[in-house]
Amino acid sequence: MAGEKSGEKKLKSLFTAEQIQQRVRQIASEIDQQYAGRSVHLVCVLKGACIFLADILRHLRLETSVDFICVWSYEQGATSSGEVRITKDLDHSIAGRDVILVEDIVDTGLTLNYLCQLLLRRNPQSLRVATLLDKPSRRIQPVKLDYVGFEIPDHFVVGYGLDYQQRYRNLPDICLLPDAEESERV
Ligand code: IMP
Question: Which CATH architecture has domain 17-153?
Fold first, then answer.
């Protein structure tokens, strides 16, 4: 069960901090093997992927560099519209680099599709995608995911960097948002 803060409802844990760490270690080791002898440039999508990035980075043994991009996805009801605004762009060029885009969750796929197209126009040597969570049943736009932490059903989740109205990012577990709150987002 996720840690309960005073005044907050109990949230049901979907993945514990230990389960997440184990999976993140596996993904880092896969990346280490696949990029052996090369360096990898991690592009973290803020804000939700910040904790996933920090953990994966600590497990990687490769030479790494990091940059951040912050996006705002406009919503139509509960679903992203595919219209994305970059609120903070990368600080460094990705031309000629082996880039891994690090995402928190892929839902409709619209945001990721926009980001991949944007990054590919900047001529990286290669581009792969690592996402902590994948909700395949919600997909509108097909996207290729190279590293997936966990596949989840169509539930809104929070914790480990993921938010609901900027809350809950600090929870160590990934938790299901109670139905009452979830229905408010529609
Ligand atoms: P997409 O464009 O529909 O794939 O939306 C991706 C973005 O929506 C993610 O980067 C999250 O910011 C947000 N999102 C989608 N599902 C969830 C969820 O269950 N919890 C928290 N954020 C979510």
Answer: 3-Layer(aba) Sandwich (3.40)
